[in-house]
Amino acid sequence: MEEKTTTLDRASMQRAMRICVIDGIFASASENMIGPFLALFALALGATKGQVGLLAALPALVSNSMQIPAARLTERLGDRKRLVVITSVISRFFILAIATVPLMLQGDVAIYTFIGLVTLRGLFANLGVPGWTSIMADITPRDSRGSYFASRNMLCNMAALSGTLVAGWLVRTYDFPAGYRISFLLAVGLGLTANYFYSTLPIPPMPRRPATRQPLVGLKSWRETIARHTAFRNYCFTSVLWNFGVSFVGPLFPVYYRQDLGGDPGFWGVVTATGVIATLIGQRYWGRLADQYGQKNVMLVGGIGAASVPLFWWFVPRWQLAPVAQFLGSFCWGGYNLAAFNLILEITPDEGRTTFVGVYNTMAGLASSMGPLVGGYLADIYGLRVVIAISGVLRWLGYFAFRSKVPSASDAKLHWSDLVPFRQDVRISQRLREREITKKDSDLSD
After folding, report:
1. In the chain, count of helices (H) and strands (E)?
2. DSSP character for 76?
3. d(CA 148, CA 140)
4. Of 48, 201, 228, nearest to 138 (Cα)?
5. Looking at the predicted structure, is the pLDDT value of residue 231 above 60?
6. SS3 track for 301-320
7. CA Rg, the chain, in Å?
């Protein structure tokens, strides 16, 4: 019996990459009509800072604790695409239930019901993450991932910007709860459109494990998985510290904006949109750097700004200037996140990638789920400015741990002068000429 190929032909790969762009556009617009406004929705229901922390922590805890089972389920079923589509559709139907909470419930019952529904939505959305990540690795050429994801992310961020601005306008125009409800319903429609396009994606079969090797399962196999790959192990452990520091205050910035700075809820859409614009501007910039100098180098440069986000917010004197802090942080986060996704694809082996991704997502996700719980609790006692300061310290500790412990797959050296856009173009032209000369010399020797 002839074995199925585990790679796509060039035409199918290009078609798959185009479909993933279309899917990403609709999915980004959908997510940004609901995600940035969940904390403000909770505040409108009467939630405390601790409850807003729980809103961020509980979905992360439940979703990421399921990453290993999700990876196992993906490998057992074999049909990665179907699992991604089904779980994503279910998660989007939970948005309909979320929109109806203010109509049916009030007080703490409404708040905790809302948190529960958001948690279930996140659970189903994340069940498909190991399979989705594995698919993206299979349909994108390794040598052009930085440029492809930069271009894809640029278009997705344009869609996210549109979704955020529309949602902000709806909230400002129709207030609570009507503005939120209309925005959430539109998000469902856009999300289901994304699911339709993704269902047409051509993908290769999953690489099969050797029959002699047993699937990874349980705490013992976690240790075995991590111990076999030093780079993967170090990346996991440094990500735990980094993600705990980031999530310590990250979900509480909307609360800081609304309660400490006295910001207008409708204007939060503008603040969020500013961040999307900053990410959009940075995608091509960071993508070219990632292809030329490697993922770790880009993470180190972008990580400086990402670690400084608490500092940016600390010095915002009034809510009208919140877009400045958002812009600076989001531009740097754009490079860090782009390279971080590509790095996890580089350091995980093709065989069993879904399990490795599941292990990483679980460890990083559990750290991210604990951060908001601790941060929200401390914010209720000491105030948000103390929590912002602690987050800054933890981020920098995670940054330096990553810098010293995680190896780089690229030998290229990134200098500060290389960050100048014009100089990037010169360096790229030089490298292209060098490759052409090398190729000509090789042809002549043949």
Report:
1. 20, 0
2. H
3. 8
4. 201
5. yes
6. HHHHHHHCHHHHHHCCCCHH
7. 22
Structure tokens at 355: 């399990």
| pTM for this entry | 0.74
DSSP state of 259: I
How buried is 392 (Cβ within 10 angstroms: 0-12 exposed, 13-18 middle, 19+ buried)? Answer: buried
- Here the tokens at position 420 are 């100048």
C-alpha closest to that of 369 among 114, 46, 123: 123
CA 106 to chain centre: 32
29 residue type, one letter: A
247-275 residue pLDDT tens: 999 889 999 999 999 998 889 989 988 99
Helix (H, G, I), strand (E, B) or coil at 57: helix
115 is written with which tokens? Answer: 């948190």
Structural domain boundaries in the chain: 10-205+216-439
- Quick one: which of 202, 322, 206, 230 has its CA closest to 269? 322
Report the amino acid identity of residue 339.
Answer: A
**Is cis: bond before 323, omega within 30 of 0?**
no
Q: Which CATH class is domain 10-205+216-439?
A: mainly alpha
